[in-house]
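Bug: token stream looks shifted between consecutive jobs. Job 1:
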Amino acid sequence: MTPPSPSESRLAALRTALCRGIPALLAGCAFLAAWELYADLSGIKPSILPAPSRIVVQGWLNREALISNTWPTLGATLGGFALSLAFAFAASILMDFVPFMRRALLPIFIASQTLPLVAIAPLVVLWFGFGLLPKILLVALVTFFPLLVALLQGYESTDRDIAELLNSMKASRWRIFRLARLPSSLPYFFAGLRISITYAVVGAIFAEYAGAARGLGIYILNAKNNFRPDLVLAAVVVSAVLTLCLFGLTLMIQRLIMPWQQSGEQRR
């Protein structure tokens, strides 16, 4: 029996993805249809609960403003996420190589996640101004902890036999880390990456709430103050689409870096 060609494998994977997505698509369409009927038949004012069709129309009419405010949010999201990724990776290596640093730093990092963002965001803006830096810092604060925990858990999942084999071959600590511990952490890392990227956009928008000149957070705040829930929800839709795109990008990167995992899923 000849193995399937790459094109056939891609088509099979696409069909599988579509079949898995159909229930969610049907549920979403049913929810939107019920919302549309309720908004049209109940007599509720659009200034209180706009119909989905009105949200789409007003979003399209105000697309230039939405797009111009999306770019600052995207910049803060990517900048903060890049800083979070670099910091989490460096901290995880330090804590893996030096157990004392893990005992010293991990409680501090856990405590940092208990800080309410609604309280810390205005202070960060006060300390660093209304530019891009405070947004980057707040996004990094929100997203680095899931990445750090995922990496540490991934290091601990290393097969002990592989580590002992490398150790018996007189491999250095760094070589064992590079050849065994780091590859073992990849599934955990990408799981943490997907969790963090969903927090990143929300963190950027919340940071803009605290103080910014442009961005989806400011757009939502201005629309709310002008009693335009249709524009508020249009901006929410844009932020949701942005989050889904970034989530999908992480999946693509995972499949490029870990193609063997995709092959295993197809066999199942």
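Job 2, same session, no restart:
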Amino acid sequence: MKKQEVELILIRISSGGQDALNMKIYKNGTTCRYGVGGVPQINISGMSFFNDARFFDPLLANVPDQVLEQPIMYEEPTPNGDLEYVIGFYGVSRNGETGEAADWSKSTGIRLKIDKQTKFNDSILSVTDTLTMLAIELTNDWYFDIMMQAGHNMLSSALPRETIISHPKTKAETSRDFQHYIDQMKASPRHWKLADYDKNKVYEREGRVFKGVVKETEQDFAIHFYPVKAASETKAENSAPAGTEGEQPWWKVW
């Protein structure tokens, strides 16, 4: 398979029957993801239609040509628990579709199923880890907004209008998965900072607009939503009696 033929990159990490990460990144811009790379599984997923290859192009550029030339399979006994990595490449549509409805005629990829205490150290494991971490990093900002919408009904200005979000049926389950997301992001050896994902955005809820500001330490996370005032509100505040000025967070999520 040649790079110019690839239209979809699929990435999945699973352990003990749970998906730690599941992603689809299409050349046409469609992007799907749930998970951070850890377990328990996070059952909050998003699909957005970006109409450009902002994630696909840099990811494919890091795929070695040798990986596309033939499938790579490795499986070993897993007495200490299993980790399975799958990276699939798909292309050349039989039905002319290049998104979720495509009927691909070409595919190849990597599948590694290893023990949690494996001594397997082939270079393909490093390639798999590099591609997986890059895919996560490229989409972290977008997936943060998916989590804000699912967990707190805050719609980011950066989220494409054509976005589908799925989450558990109950508020308790959604809150649990949101907390798993925070814990796994903070525990990542890549030291991802959630405060990096509140920049240059506003959020909308019930017709009002807010600025989200993340406060975090190594142990804690909080996001405060501050109302963004319209010009008329600013004028009214400037004429308010002394001592009543100042903006307080209308919504606070711990």
